[in-house]
Amino acid sequence: MNIDFHDQTRTVDEDMVDLLHRLLQFAAKQENVLREAEISVNFVNNKEIQEINRNYRQKDMPTDVISFAMQESVEGELEIVGEDADMPLSLGDIVISVEKAKEQAAEYNHSFERELGFLAVHGFLHLLGYDHMTDEEEKKMFLRQEEILGEFGLER
């Protein structure tokens, strides 16, 4: 899977990007994602993610992670016809607030690496269609997150 990282905050070091790259590759393998798939991971500050949250979810407050799934169909959306079979499968974009990740790492008393890894996997699973709108969906998604993080070795 191809992963494009974009750090608008200029605060996420190369070692952290490498860790997240390996974690997301591991998660992709665990979820049987095609090697040709691609995603982007964007690191922003609280102000930027609040603006995104307000514009796309009508919630005027900063959040930790937002995902934009490309493969999800929306009611009323036109189907793309004639997609090139040789084109990579774009799963979508993950946007993570670095500030919020640092706040939550301190709040939950675990490392920044663990929190950023959790948010990356959480966003990735959303791209694959996991959700937490019901108790049952939430249980399934959060169990899968913990399995992936634990098997990768990024535990609390």
What does this structure look like?
The protein is α/β, with parallel strands linked by helices and 156 residues long. The chain has a single domain, classed as 3-Layer(aba) Sandwich (Collagenase (Catalytic Domain)), CATH 3.40.390. 47% of the residues lie in helices and 17% in strands. The protein is built from five helices and four strands. The chain has a four-stranded mixed beta sheet. The protein is globular and about 35 Å long. It starts with a strand and ends with a helix. 28% of the residues are buried.
Topology:
Layout: E1 2-7, H1 14-30, E2 38-44, H2 46-57, E3 65-69, E4 90-97, H3 98-108, H4 112-127, H5 135-152
Parallel strand pairs: 1-2, 2-4
Antiparallel strand pairs: 3-4
Keywords:
156 residues, alpha/beta, Collagenase (Catalytic Domain), 5 helices, 4 strands, globular
Strand order, largest beta sheet:
1-2-4-3
The beta-strand count equals 4
Per the CATH scheme, the topology name is: Collagenase (Catalytic Domain)
- Helix-strand sequence: EHEHEEHHH
Mind telling me the C-alpha Rg? 16 Å
